[in-house]
Amino acid sequence: MTFERASLGLFAAALLGVFGALGGAFVRAIDTGATPTGAVHAIESPRASVGAQAGAASVVSDLAHLAEDALVIASNRGPVNFAEGASGAIEVRRAGGGLATGLAPLVENRSNVTWIASAVDGVDLRAARTRVPTPGFNMRYVTMDPARYDLAYNHVANEALWFAAHGFWDGVRAPRFDATFRDAWKAFRELNRKFAGAIDRAAPEGGTVLVQDYHLPLVGDLLRERRPDLRTVHFTHTPFGGPDEMRRLPAAVSEELLHGMAGFDAAGFHTKRWATRYEQSSNELIVRAAATYVAPLGIDPDNVRRIATSAEADRWVQDLRAIVGDRMVISRTDRIELSKNIVSGFNAYDDMLERHPELRNRVSFVASIFPSREAVEEYGKYSKQIEATVDRINQKYGTADWQPIVLFNDASNMPRAMAGLRIADAVLINPVRDGLNLVAKEGAVVNENHAALVLSRETGFFDELAAAGKGDAVLGINPFDETETSDALYRALTMPKRTRTRMAKQLRGAVEARGPEHWLRDQLHAAR
Ligand code: G6P
Question: 4, 56, 168, 238: which has the highest count of C-beta atoms within 10 A?
């Protein structure tokens, strides 16, 4: 198989193959004790603070659980992608994206695990129809008429549910729900029904079903009707919209969505904050909610570092250094995504250079960002706005030998992105809202310079750190406040080296305490 990147968590793809067999994965696992009881459970059991004995005991029980029980995973994107090779033959590639890649290495080569995913484009449809083999994964594909799938995926999931989850609508121009949206909602329901049908066919009596993300919320209720014997868990990888956001959806839509989720045995979230919003929305709008649990996704530090120090990444370190010289470096890497607040981050940098002229020509901002969801109009506009902002700042301060912002905004290039994180003095992660943010975790483990992390308080990762008492390992910012962000960048670049080192070490320790295996185990606990 070749390897392909997709959407989130730049190094998440690198998690593939880290663990190989599950045995390896769980040797390092520690019981986090996630149990859905109707109340929100914070899960805080860093590896470092739990004794080896407790870890070993849970390894045995969880291995047994996974080894024996039938497990069905359902997600819109699966762990493999299909692409048409030069000869027209279909090639199988590993998918990127934190969701698929966090899970994939943990369930690879397990005959008791079935993974159900959408055929997301024409090549996927062809592959599904001709049953192209997917080594390592027992795949089933849900297929739909492409125009109907587009309505479900783009019009409902990306444009409506994503916006509700992140609180993006301004209320003045958007949202507006018309007859097209009603039709799109029917397509979305059809997608969810097809998934429920596929799960019904794949899951043996009493099996465990893990359903992923905002594309498939209706599956809970649909399955409860058909298959009350199954243990079903849903996990939301984004934030969740509170009652005010959910009320903006057509009433019948928000009610169907929340009833769908209430049909699961448990609903999981990266942080308590998103879980609470889900509960509030459900309780206010339909007076019914699934039990919730909190389980932030982690990364595997060793594997991330292995990829970040590949020969290609090393070459990029040299190339970037040739561009920025010995100047200090602020770094970011993201998909071009409305939630990432990329323009505002550059504005904050502009403000810092304006107020601290002594830093001009002493720092470069290396931004490695890559296109996503280009079918959604707002994303195209945002991409242009980013380019215009970078041009403006480079023209304002740039000199013959200094380019204030070094922008890469072509196709995703993981080695280059990781090289940028490696050489950074400050990493900027400033989303307006983010379910978790794996890039922040990746930066913390690959950086070689004790970089300070300027982190939006609106990310799930900030909440995760705060819940673990590690909030002071980062410089927290309000992502809407460009002055505060500018101040934080300035502080990151000028704080005493020993303070920065202490913070970076604390941050790394917090990230290393929890890997994807903890997350998977939390799902299995929630299903019990
Ligand atoms: C983001 C979200 C994930 C989601 C993914 C889908 O990264 O955080 O929760 O699953 O987007 O991306 P896609 O490219 O498939 O729309």
Answer: 238
